[in-house]
Q: What sequence folds into this?
């Protein structure tokens, strides 16, 4: 398989990004085109391992060595087939996945891993470009009706899978767009929205019914839902953001990251936003609280809006540059990452806890914080203490809270259904993704808490499998999570 | 119980796998003059072959010895009257030599046989008690000594000639044997008729060679006279031998082993119904079974077969040519008549294949025949007074040099006949020409035999239905992995795919995936008792040709006998099977039977379908069809295929039982057989040919879709695939030492694991399946499951790609692999952070406590005490780790960094690392200044002998002889040139960049007594080292282990089938050998039953991972434990499985300098891991109440089958045979507590060392002169060891110690001769002369007074200079087969050699001043040879695969050649050399230089860089 010595003679070479100067002027994707020969060379770096850790590092179990080999040989269409076997949406994961596959790639033990994610993206894009990805209409219909609540990656995956085995699927989405976080949460420079729409349209053409603006439990009763469908898949995400209850939190200019990002996405789609509602970083000093992916998305967006300065604070200590001994390969590496947004500017500071916001005229203009020290307790948990005399205050015109998400919104759909929740407030499910209520399944962040798109797809697939088996007694749908 | 009992089948022991090997001798007066002197000579020869036999636990009890002579009429004339017998003239009476069971039942047996004699109308002349002296024989022999009587039978009325009487005696004997075999009392086992003839008699017994003459007083009676004597001394694997297993048999004695025995017996039984004879008439019935299979050795069986053939009216040599034909394929030069003879007879009978030296007599002629491979030595001397002395060795009879007229040897495939009536020797050519001319065989063939290629092209040829291919592929279990990993390389490069790192998937019966029936079978292979072959380098002896069709009566020879279809290959293309289907010839008619079954469970079942199939087959045969095609074409949603293996084997055995099997040939047309092992199984269970149509269709489909590289077309893809399968088949056959497909067919060289007895007895009769397993119902369920994969109505609209696979490479959710991401990462983490808790997580995964069981040990529970003992009472971990060793992984297979890390780790804890077969840098023998030692304690001696120098051998505490390797038992190895860098080449004493081949067999081990010889050689060179023998588990391995213990091995290693490897064909990796649990338990049982356990250490390895694994291994009988994969993983291995590609990304299995820099393993990681395992074991020991490992060894009673495991396929598994603890007296040791007696004090070398003390201590020169005999084996070796110990690599200055020996040197003369020794033999020498010579100098020439022409006589035996690394050897005279094999540095001159000269040579210079045999330079990748080619015929006899022929024109070459010839002349006084030198210019032109192409290329590359050979320039750093 592949080119056994490929990795010896070729180094990792992902596609080049556009220059910082050019890319911050628009919201378009960052990457320049990648030549076919380069892609094949890069795919040839895959070693076709006897035990491919990437394949288990991927929540979907993508058949990475297999399609790398096919790409290396130039069999793109077969590569696409192999990729679609486990992944409904390679064009999404190929763009926005943090690629645990690459950090568990065997090459990453002592070299740079294979550019798995970029290859995945190329396979998906090529599939659309060449017209290989076409709506596949089910051979026959089962007559069973399934509702999927939520059109994020979990919901879409579940819908696509359920439809493929002949069920009549309706997807309910409370927003005006389908796609969930893919559509409204992630900035265009990471995932242009026509990519999402293309897939939604395809699924629709395959026979799935999409109903937007339907918020079950609010403008569509739970009873009606229960009465109209043979099975239900809850895929509403974990949208309850973590808040920061400090003095000054209610000052104007302190926003949840998701408010900020969604608004920008709507504007890019041509929606009008009232000036009073507009959150704009133009010429502002922006402080982003939270050092995760959402924080990075805010960072990139703020630069594109023309921020004067952007600072990102993280409460945890600065991660190491290399893996610590207790965080060995193939585990997910807890190391300092440099996202594309970081290349574009802004500064990062670690081990900082925000104490309060102050401002004038109801608007924030200052953030007060203190440095903290982390210690390992007896029970191996980390605890934090403030460092005396380390108080700082900085000017801040716009504060974005990217502190993560707590759990699904419990009021409305979930409490009215009465599904059992787990200790973290997420929906509890069994091995087949069924909730405490027969016929009601759940998937994605609603089950797992805020997590990766790739996990959402995996769970959506598994929920579909569970539903199919529940409805029909058996199933041919594959299980994603082992 | 306080005494040992004779062995019967119990536990895993089955006596049918007992093996033996031997010394054979013949003494004859060529002119037929009878004398007592011949008997005396025979007994002397026998005594001098004593060391080739063996003794058991009781040192005075031999394995058996005996003598066959002509009827001693003068003796009986004087003795008979004393017991009241009135003796008729010779020829008018017969004598039965009969072993009767003890006194109580003697009478009954006597009257039983008397009754038969009378019923057959013959006269009873009387009984004579054979006078014996039991006082000299061993205790055990006496315990089981029979009453030995002679029955004298006279001619009855109606019997005229001697021949008729002889025939009657045959009938009487066969009837008696059959009646006795049906008796149930134990005494019946002891009844035996050693001979029953009018013209010859056999005296034999459970004796040591020199006891024969003392025991049988008749033999010392001077009235006993004969013109010839055949003698035999036996080395058997078991120790509680029996009297009747001694040779000679009624017609022959044998050195060797019949590999295809099971098939030969089955085929003979299948033929019986076709027999008809006017001589025997209705009496034929009384002869059946011709070969009583049970309780007989292979020799007894071939004796039965030979006897039958002779009673069909064929002469002794004619019969032998049928049983053991020489290689007769088109590539072998021979007359057309002879080839026709062999081809004609191949339609009557398959060869009895395997190494065989048979010495036979019909009473007046003595014939000796050697099989086509010639792996058994047989030398002879003819004296001027017409005495012939032939034996496995020379020097067995003292003959004055001036009396010798000729010294020769028997060549591969040749026969030698003495006709004492005609009074002359008839040579092979004359003999065979005469026999081949008996009938117009060629004409008969031309008129009757039909060649496949002569058949018309098929009228209609079904085009593959690609539309349904996907469904059919799924229903036949094809995966994407199979397409890419297996079929693709076969179709593109015509070779089977290679893999590495062993197999770690579950046994078939423990797999959750539906398994093809094929996967329940494991290939058997040859080890120790017979050698595997090298089908690549010694292709000339192999053959895939066969015939199919109806056989005829064996008692006749008619043109119709060869009315059969002849196939050049058993693999049929889609056209070819259609040609056969449409065949329109008289007497050849094909009929297709469908092998599908109705899946509706109401109406169909697999069992019912098999019944119908079998009865349809019978019907078709009775209707006159001669070829049955079993076809699973036409499958649909309602009809699933019967597994083709079940179909063919079921029909095969059914037809045998019906007595009509030989009337028909079976051809399989199947979709489920696609890889090499599968097709080998079909043939092994009776198929004459196979059409793997789905493999072809899948390949064509890939071609059409452009999935195959190089845009290959369908025709070449088809040809390549067929070629790959053919090569693979030859490899599988040659693993068992089988040369001819015709013999392999139906030979059932497989063992089943996980198949129930009912299933096996009915459909796979005689196959071993020792722990039971699934029945036909489960086979059916799996067949249905697979079928459903293709035909289940799926609602899914997803793509229809095949399953991904996961059998060879791990894939999530697919087949389980014990090394998976979880276990690998946990193990690495534990070792690196020294975390026992993490190790325990790993162990839990690995041991399958979570319910995932993939091994036999997973089905076992340990019996814990209610109250454990305190753990601090258990012996400490630091002691336990000393029992651990790492696997034999060569430097070359892995990088220097990884190899040394392992050695450092093991040395630091007092355990043992293993060099593997690649030699070792001698600088590692001395510890670093800091005390760190990189010296591997265990040094391996494998078939390639790379870097096996005297110095290497003396720097080991353990020397391991690798007989086989778990991942590819029965195969050799190959290190590709790109892995041989300067350092590796230097360490291996070979040229960098040149490919290195390890032969499948050790060329000095063709039998068990040869192994004993190598053990002796190694013990001599390093008396302090323990000598290990590494075996691989298979049925009968325990019996081989017993042979190893008897051959004085100190340690026997039983390797499991799943161990790692750097490179191996996938079919071997997956399907050869057995799990160690079975092999180990069998070994423990057999060793204990034979009281051979206490003197040998038992080691095991093969995917041991945890303390629990070690505990089970210990309870099953091991006291030392080997690990290879696990320590490699702790050093960073991540099971890339790319070792064979040199692209290991973590710098372990690679020589690429860039990748080696990536190695980051630390010895401490290995150490941490081993302490975890030891600690884990201690926890278990405490729970079981064992304080020491020794107490625990072999306590199978402390294991119970697990009841917790519920797998639908494990219901029928029965582990009781595996867990049986033999019931033996308390005095019998169950673990090693004493040392082997190697008898080194007898060695001449003790004296040599004494005499050479001044040289050893002060480097002063000494001269030594001593007589020598063939009993003096391995001479000068212990002294060489002493030199190496003192002076290391550089040895002593040249010729410091000069020795001269007069006489016949025993085997292995001058083995590992060290530098500084200069040795001369005046006389002759036996096999393995100068093996492993490491810098010494040897010369051999005929004794003073000889009158024979030296250069026309054989002076040394076979396999001279094997594994030589340096030094010089001069031989005045001829040498046998495989001269200079694997030489990597010695310079030698010889005056003529046998077949396969310079095989696998990698260095040094070989000069042959005369003729070579066939296949010269096969596998020769380095060094040069100069051949004096006087008649210009050399180019017919060399193997051109790797070498070119050149003239000797370069000045350098001329100087070297001339110098060596001069030295030869000066040292040996050679007259040939003198003549050549005297006519140098004229002779120089007649020399041919044999130059390996690879070697030439590398030399040219070096020359271009301005360097000479690197290794000569001193130490190399890698």
A:
């Amino acid at each position: 398989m592949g080119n056994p010595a490929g990795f010896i003679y070729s180094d990792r070479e992902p596609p080049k990004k556009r220059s910082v100067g050019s890319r911050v002027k628009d919201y378009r994707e960052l990457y320049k085109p990648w030549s076919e020969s380069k892609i094949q060379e890069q795919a040839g770096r895959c070693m076709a391992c006897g035990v491919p850790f990437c394949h288990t590092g991927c929540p979907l179990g993508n058949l990475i060595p297999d399609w790398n080999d096919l790409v290396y040989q130039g069999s793109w269409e077969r590569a696409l087939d192999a990729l679609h076997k486990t992944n409904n949406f390679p064009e999404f994961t190929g763009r926005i996945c943090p690629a645990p596959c690459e950090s568990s790639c065997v090459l990453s033990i002592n070299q740079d891993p294979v550019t798995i994610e970029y290859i995945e993206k190329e396979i998906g894009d090529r599939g659309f470009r060449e017209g290989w990805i076409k709506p596949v209409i089910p051979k026959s219909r089962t007559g069973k009706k399934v509702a999927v609540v939520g059109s994020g990656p979990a919901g879409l995956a579940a819908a696509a899978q359920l439809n493929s085995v002949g069920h009549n699927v309706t997807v309910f989405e409370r927003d005006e767009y389908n796609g969930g976080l893919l559509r409204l949460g992630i900035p265009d420079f990471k995932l242009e929205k026509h990519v999402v729409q293309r897939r939604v349209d395809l699924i629709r053409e395959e026979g799935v019914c999409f109903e937007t603006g339907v918020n079950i439990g609010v403008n569509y009763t739970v009873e009606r839902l229960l009465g109209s469908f043979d099975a239900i898949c809850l895929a509403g995400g974990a949208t309850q953001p973590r808040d920061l209850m400090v003095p000054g939190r209610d000052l104007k200019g302190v926003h949840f990251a998701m408010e900020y990002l969604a608004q920008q996405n709507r504007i890019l789609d041509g929606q009008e936003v009232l000036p009073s509602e507009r959150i704009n970083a133009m010429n502002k000093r922006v402080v982003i609280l939270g050092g995760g992916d959402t924080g990075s998305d805010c960072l990139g967006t703020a630069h594109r809006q023309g921020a004067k300065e952007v600072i990102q604070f993280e409460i945890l200590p600065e991660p190491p540059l290399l893996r610590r001994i207790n965080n060995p390969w193939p585990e997910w590496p807890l190391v300092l990452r440099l996202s594309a947004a970081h290349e574009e500017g802004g500064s990062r500071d670690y081990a900082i806890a925000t104490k309060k916001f102050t401002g004038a005229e109801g608007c924030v203009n200052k953030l007060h914080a203190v440095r903290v020290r982390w210690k390992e307790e007896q029970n191996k948990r980390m605890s934090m203490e403030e460092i005396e005399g380390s108080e700082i205050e900085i000017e801040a015109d716009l504060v974005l809270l990217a502190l993560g998400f707590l759990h699904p919104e419990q009021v409305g759909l979930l409490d009215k259904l009465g599904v059992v929740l787990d200790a973290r407030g997420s929906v509890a499910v069994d091995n087949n993704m069924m909730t405490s209520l027969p016929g009601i399944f759940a998937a994605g962040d609603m089950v797992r808490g805020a997590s990766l798109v790739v996990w959402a797809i995996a769970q959506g697939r598994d929920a579909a499998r569970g539903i199919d088996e529940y409805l029909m007694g058996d199933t041919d749908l594959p299980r994603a999570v082992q | 119980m306080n005494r040992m009992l004779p062995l019967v089948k119990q536990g895993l022991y089955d006596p049918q796998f007992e093996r033996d090997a031997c010394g054979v001798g013949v003494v004859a007066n060529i002119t037929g003059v009878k004398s007592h002197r011949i008997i005396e000579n025979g007994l002397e020869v026998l005594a001098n072959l004593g060391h080739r036999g063996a003794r058991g636990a009781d040192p005075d009890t031999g394995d058996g010895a005996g003598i066959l002579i002509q009827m001693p009429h003068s003796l009986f004339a004087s003795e008979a009257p004393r017991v009241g017998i009135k003796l008729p003239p010779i020829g008018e009476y017969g004598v039965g030599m009969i072993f009767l069971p003890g006194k109580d039942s003697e009478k009954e047996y006597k009257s039983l046989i008397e009754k038969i004699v009378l019923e057959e109308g013959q006269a009873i002349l009387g009984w004579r008690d054979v006078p014996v002296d039991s006082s000299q024989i061993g205790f055990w022999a006496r315990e089981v000594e029979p009453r030995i009587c002679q029955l004298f039978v006279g001619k009855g009325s109606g019997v005229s000639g001697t021949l008729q009487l002889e025939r009657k005696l045959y009938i009487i004997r066969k009837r008696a044997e059959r009646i006795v075999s049906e008796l149930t009392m134990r005494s019946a086992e002891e009844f035996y008729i050693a001979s029953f003839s009018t013209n010859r008699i056999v005296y034999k017994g459970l004796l040591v060679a020199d006891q024969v003459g003392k025991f049988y007083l008749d033999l010392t009676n001077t009235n006993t006279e004969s013109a010839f004597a055949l003698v035999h001394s036996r080395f058997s694997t078991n120790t509680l031998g029996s009297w009747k297993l001694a040779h000679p048999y009624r017609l022959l004695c044998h050195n060797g082993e019949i590999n295809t025995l099971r098939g030969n017996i089955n085929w003979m039984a299948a033929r019986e119904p076709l027999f008809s004879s006017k001589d025997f008439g209705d009496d034929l019935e009384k002869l059946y079974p011709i070969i009583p299979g049970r309780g007989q050795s292979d020799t007894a069986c071939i004796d039965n077969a030979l006897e039958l053939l002779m009673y069909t009216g064929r002469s002794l040599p004619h019969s032998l040519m049928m049983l053991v034909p020489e290689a007769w394929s088109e590539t072998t030069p021979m007359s057309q008549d002879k080839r026709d003879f062999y081809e004609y007879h191949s339609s009557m009978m398959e060869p009895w294949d395997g190494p065989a030296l048979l010495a036979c007599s019909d009473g007046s002629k003595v014939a000796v025949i050697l099989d086509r491979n010639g792996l058994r030595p047989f030398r002879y001397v003819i004296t001027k007074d017409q005495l012939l002395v032939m034996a496995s060795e020379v020097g067995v009879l003292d003959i004055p040099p001036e009396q010798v007229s000729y010294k020769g040897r028997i060549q591969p495939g040749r026969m030698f006949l003495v006709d004492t009536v005609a009074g002359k020797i008839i040579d092979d050519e004359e003999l065979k020409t005469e026999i081949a001319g008996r009938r117009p065989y060629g004409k008969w063939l031309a008129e009757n035999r039909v060649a496949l290629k002569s058949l018309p092209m098929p009228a209609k040829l079904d085009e593959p239905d690609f539309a349904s291919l996907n469904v059919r592929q799924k229903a036949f279990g094809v995966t994407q992995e199979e397409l890419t990993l297996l079929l693709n390389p076969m179709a593109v490069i015509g070779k089977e795919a290679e893999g590495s790192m062993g197999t770690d998937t579950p046994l078939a019966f423990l797999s959750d995936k539906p398994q093809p029936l094929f996967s329940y079978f494991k290939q058997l292979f040859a080890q120790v008792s017979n050698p595997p072959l090298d089908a690549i380098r010694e292709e000339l002896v192999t053959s895939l040709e066969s015939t199919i069709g109806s056989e005829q009566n064996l008692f006749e020879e008619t043109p119709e006998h060869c009315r059969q279809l002849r196939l050049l290959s058993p693999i049929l293309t889609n056209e070819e099977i259609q040609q056969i289907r449409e065949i329109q010839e008289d007497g050849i008619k094909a009929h297709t039977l469908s092998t599908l079954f109705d899946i509706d469970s109401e109406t169909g079942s697999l069992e019912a379908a098999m019944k119908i199939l079998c009865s349809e087959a019978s019907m078709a045969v009775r209707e006159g069809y001669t070829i049955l095609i079993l076809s699973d074409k036409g499958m649909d949603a309602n009809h699933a295929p019967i597994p083709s293996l079940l179909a063919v084997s079921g029909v095969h055995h059914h037809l045998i039982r019906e007595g009509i099997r030989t009337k028909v040939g079976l051809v399989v047309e199947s979709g489920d057989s696609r890889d090499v092992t599968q097709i080998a199984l079909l043939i092994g269970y009776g198929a004459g040919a196979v059409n793997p149509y789905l493999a072809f269709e899948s390949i064509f489909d890939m071609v059409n879709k452009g999935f195959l590289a190089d845009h290959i077309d369908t025709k070449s893809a088809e040809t390549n695939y067929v070629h790959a399968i053919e090569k693979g088949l030859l490899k599988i056959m040659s693993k068992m030492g089988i040369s001819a497909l015709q013999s392999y067919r139906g030979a059932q060289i497989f063992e089943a694991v996980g198949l129930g007895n009912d299933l096996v007895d009915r459909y796979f009769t005689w196959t071993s399946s020792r722990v039971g397993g699934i029945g036909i119902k489960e086979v059916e369920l799996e067949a249905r499951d697979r079928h459903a994969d293709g035909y289940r109505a799926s609602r899914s609209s997803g793509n229809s790609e095949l399953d991904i696979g996961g059998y060879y490479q791990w894939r999530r959710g697919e087949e389980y692999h014990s090394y998976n991401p979880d276990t690998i990462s946990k193990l690495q983490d534990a070792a690196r952070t020294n975390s026992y808790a993490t190790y325990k997580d790993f162990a839990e995964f690995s041991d399958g406590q979570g319910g995932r069981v993939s091994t036999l040990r997973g089905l076992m529970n340990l019996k814990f005490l209610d109250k454990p003992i305190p753990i601090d009472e258990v012996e400490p971990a630091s002691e336990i780790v000393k029992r651990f060793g790492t696997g034999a992984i060569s430097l070359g297979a892995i990088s220097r960094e990884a190899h040394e890390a392992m050695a450092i780790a093991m040395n630091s804890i007092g355990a043992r690392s293993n060099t593997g077969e690649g030699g070792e840098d001698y600088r590692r023998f001395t510890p670093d200044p800091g005390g760190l030692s990189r010296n591997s304690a265990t040094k391996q001696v494998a078939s390639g002998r790379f870097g096996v120098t005297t110095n290497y051998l003396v720097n080991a505490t353990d020397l391991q002889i690798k007989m086989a390797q778990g991942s590819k038992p029965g195969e050799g190895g190959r290190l590709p040139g790109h892995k041989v860098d300067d350092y590796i080449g230097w360490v291996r004493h070979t040229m960098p960049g040149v490919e290195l081949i390890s032969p499948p067999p050790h060329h000095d081990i063709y039998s068990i007594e040869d192994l004993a010889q190598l053990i002796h050689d190694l013990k001599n060179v390093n008396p302090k080292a323990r000598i290990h023998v590494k075996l691989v588990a298979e049925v009968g391995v325990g019996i081989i282990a017993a042979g190893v213990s008897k051959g004085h091995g100190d340690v026997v290693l039983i390797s499991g089938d799943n161990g790692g490897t750097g490179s191996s064909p996938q079919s071997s990796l997956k399907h050869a050998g057995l799990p160690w649990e079975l092999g180990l338990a069998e070994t423990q049982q057999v060793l204990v039953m034979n009281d051979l356990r206490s003197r040998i250490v038992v080691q095991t390895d093969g995917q041991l991972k945890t303390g629990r694994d070690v505990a089970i291994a210990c309870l099953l009988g091991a006291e030392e434990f080997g690990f290879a994969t696990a320590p490699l993983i702790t050093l960073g291995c991540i099971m890339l499985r790319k070792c064979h590609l040199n692209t290991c990304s973590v710098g372990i299995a690679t020589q690429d300098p860039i990748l080696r820099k990536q190695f980051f393993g630390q010895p401490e990681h290995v150490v941490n891991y081993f302490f975890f395992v030891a600690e884990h074991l201690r926890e278990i020991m405490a729970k079981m109440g064992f304080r020491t490992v020794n107490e625990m060894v072999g306590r199978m009673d402390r294991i119970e089958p697990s009841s917790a495991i519920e797998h639908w396929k494990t219901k029928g598994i029965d582990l009781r045979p595996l867990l049986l603890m033999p019931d033996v007296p308390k005095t019998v040791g169950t673990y090693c507590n004493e040392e082997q007696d190697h008898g080194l004090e007898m060695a001449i070398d003790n004296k040599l060392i004494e005499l050479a003390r001044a040289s050893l201590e002060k480097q002063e020169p000494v001269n030594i002169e001593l007589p020598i005999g063939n009993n003096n084996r391995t001479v000068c070796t212990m002294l060489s060891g002493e030199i190496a110990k003192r002076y290391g690599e550089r040895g002593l200055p040249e010729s410091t110690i000069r020795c001269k020996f007069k006489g016949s040197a025993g085997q292995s003369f001058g083995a590992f001769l060290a530098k500084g020794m200069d040795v001369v033999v005046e006389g002759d020498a036996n096999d393995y002369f100068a093996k492993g010579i490491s810098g010494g100098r040897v010369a051999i020439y005929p004794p003073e007074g000889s009158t024979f022409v030296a250069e026309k006589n054989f002076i040394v035996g076979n396999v001279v200079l094997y594994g030589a690394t340096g030094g010089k050897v001069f031989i005045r005279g001829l040498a046998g087969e495989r001269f200079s094999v694997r030489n990597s540095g010695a310079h030698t001159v010889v005056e003529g050699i046998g077949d396969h000269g310079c095989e696998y040579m990698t260095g040094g210079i070989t000069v042959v001043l005369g003729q070579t045999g066939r296949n010269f330079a096969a596998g020769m990748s380095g060094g040069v040879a100069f051949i004096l080619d006087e008649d210009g015929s050399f180019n017919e006899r060399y193997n051109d695969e790797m070498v070119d022929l050149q003239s000797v024109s370069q000045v350098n070459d001329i100087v070297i050649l001339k110098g060596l010839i001069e030295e030869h002349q000066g040292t040996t006084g050679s007259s040939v050399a003198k003549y050549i030198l005297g006519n140098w210019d004229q002779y120089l032109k007649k020399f041919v230089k044999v130059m390996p192409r690879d070697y030439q290329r590398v030399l040219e590359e070096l020359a271009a860089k301005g360097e000479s050979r690197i290794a000569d320039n001193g130490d190399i750093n890698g």
